[in-house]
Amino acid sequence: MNDTIVLGVDIGGSHITAALVNTSNGTILEGSMQREKIDSSAGAEDIIQAWTAVMNQSLRFAANSGKIAIAMPGPFDYQNGISYMKSMGKYDALYGMNVRNLLLNQLSGHISKICFINDAGCFLQGEVSHGPAAGYDEVVGFTLGTGFGSAVAKNGQALDADFWCHPFMGGICEDFFSSRWFVSTYNNYSGLRVNNVKELIFNVDLGGPLLQVFDEFSINMGVFLTQLYKKHQYDCVVLGGNISNASTLFLPQLKYYLKTMAITAPVYISSKGETAALIGAACSVYMD
Prior knowledge:
Blueprint: E1 5-11, E2 15-22, E3 27-28, E4 34-37, H1 44-59, E5 67-72, E6 76-77, E7 82-83, H2 99-104, E8 113-118, H3 119-130, E9 138-144, E10 148-154, E11 157-160, E12 167-168, E13 171-172, H4 179-190, H5 197-203, H6 208-231, E14 236-240, H7 251-260, E15 267-269, H8 276-284
Parallel strand pairs: 1-5, 5-8, 9-14, 14-15
Antiparallel strand pairs: 1-2, 2-3, 2-4, 6-7, 9-10, 10-11, 12-13
């Protein structure tokens, strides 16, 4: 048994990722990471079996604490382990069920604790626990992807922030900082058609329309962060998610804009990438 080794789990709408995390230094045990696609429209028994198969593979990799920390989307009763996701296109079959008990019935080995944590907060928790943001008291973090995930951290503990629905420029933040905005804006400017951000970033020529999109994004994000700073004087910003992988196309402009607005808080790109949520979830086990 190794009490510093916790199984971190990240459950998404179409996948599950699990890995053993050394919570003392925020590293993933090499070879322990498992990732599988999940049919989130399946029945409850099939979903639980698919999840536990992945978790059991990771748990068997090395001696561990028997503690499991799961980054779970909401709505969810995190304390009691009950799912309230319904009509959201994922995991309807688990509605009202005690997911903790269902998992315990299927997991092998000695499991001493299963914690559920809001998935948006886990990304930032991983960064403030074992990333460059660890030295700051008040941190805001955003995941730029299919949606606009957000979290705030104070004194090393991160919580979901729900900035996705924050009013912004006649709409809400999600209208401007999600993959949908990037795709529709590029298609509008170029007269061409791309279907997703990955295609946009990796398959489109580095030309005028693409640069125009990222320049506009930089300004929009700069305006939002300036508005946010006036209300919550954060010490630094962390950006993650798939769109952050294209930071060379927007980070210099964003930093310049913030500098012109006399905002000195540094902006970091996630140091942990896709493992941030796993690390953050695992580190949360000892914050109860």
